[in-house]
Amino acid sequence: MLPNRREIDPLDQFLARLIRGKSTYPGCSDFRSHLYGHVDVGCLHIRPALNIDSPRDRARLVAVSDAVFALTRQHGGIFWGEHGKGLRGAYLREWIGPEAYAALQGVKAAFDPSGRFNPGKLVSNGGAIMGIATTPFRDFNAPEGDALERAFRCNGNAQCLSYAAATPMCPSFKATADLRHSPKGRADALRAWHKARQEEGPDLPRREADLRAVLDTCLSCKACASACPVQVDIPTMRAAFLADYFARHARPMADRLILAAERFSPLALRFAPVLAPLWPLAARLAECLTGSRDLPRRIARLPRDLWLDEADLADALPEGSVILVQDWFTALFDGRVQHQVIAGLRVLGYRPRLLRMRPAGNAAQGAGDRAGFEAMARTLVRRLDRAAATGAPLVAFEPAFAMMLRQDYPRAGFAPPPVLLPQEFLSAEARRHRFPQARAGQTARLLSHCTEATGLPEAGALWARVFQALGIQVQTPATGCCGMAGLFGHQNRHQAMSRKLFDLSWREHLESGETVLATGFSCRCQAERLSGRVPGHPLGLIAKALR
Description:
The chain is of the alpha/beta class.
């Protein structure tokens, strides 16, 4: 039988007073909290806005807990925790009574006579019971402005410990089933290193070696930056750690070569006609020097009348112009997809042009080369600003590049103009204009880049909307990471993990016999090297269907 309103009011009013900061209970005044929970069963989670590192706020938390417990006892309620039962063990004896508690002690004595299991939690036959005032919590707050703040905010919810093949988070945990190689485990290692670094502890070298090992398996898919409830962004914190580490240690030769390749990629693109015959040999040499395999063997070559230089941006562009913005990998090595994107936009009536490529600094940022990243970012933002001033839409057909501009650039203090993904641009256009209709019978499976799927959860649905407007049937199945992730899948030491991730959720689609499309450059490379099939870009299918 449900209690009547009069019976609920005291606790209801108490919670309301806590939220408003007007509680009259000792130690509970000026108290703020957030409420969330399960509306179906009326279960409330109260997250106090307290600094648990502070003795004063820890005492306030004790006062609030005592007051809530007293009210639940008074009105026949239950004071418990969905996950944090251990800290409430100090209230257990009073709640269930001495007789029932003695029975639990008997069970404890029979099955755990040495008190080895969860000592001090809930039931004890001699030792002290943990309480909110006495349990030694780990530090919850990093120093203000610290780059590792999110590692301290990890609350152990373990959403990253997912074995589901078709969910993006966390690829390296799926492949290893090892807690250390998860955002949760890496946050633990980052906190331990942070403490050793701050205190200059004797175990700092060991902590650094352990941390480098667990961060090395991170694919930088950025799923933890969006899918984790508290956004424990491991790639960004890895960059901060590496910046600190390599300020004190020499970088490996392989890292320096990769950073140089990114920095000088515009020069390589300019001299592509000269480099093209030599590139297969250069790629094999690069594999030996960087400990990699399966690097691209061809340099992209496009008609230069499609390029937009600085001088071109000073003039008005024709109506219907679309400016395509590229990262250095697609610009240098993905000529086939560049042709597909251009053809797809042209058949829809647009005038695509390629903005002269400037690297975004992805490799530099990931390696902790802050100065290199910031220099490239400043140059790119200036070019994007000039391109945006023409009034033509900016579109990036490489999802990881577009997500970097949205997520990492603002965090680093840069404000690039809006750069759309193709499906964002075309779905908006489909609402304003009627697209031509494709011939019947065109179907395909479209697989999204994992960074795109987490950073823009509606990415697949937007593509489906575009294809529906064209009369083409496209499935957008959920997939996890393909296992390539930029250079990760090329590195020799990551081959087993890379292949396992591909087998988990990508291989079945590539072996289905259906037309497969992939939005990411890395994904297309991985599919080609591990299945022999080369997925096309969605705009390539549009070009083919409407010709």
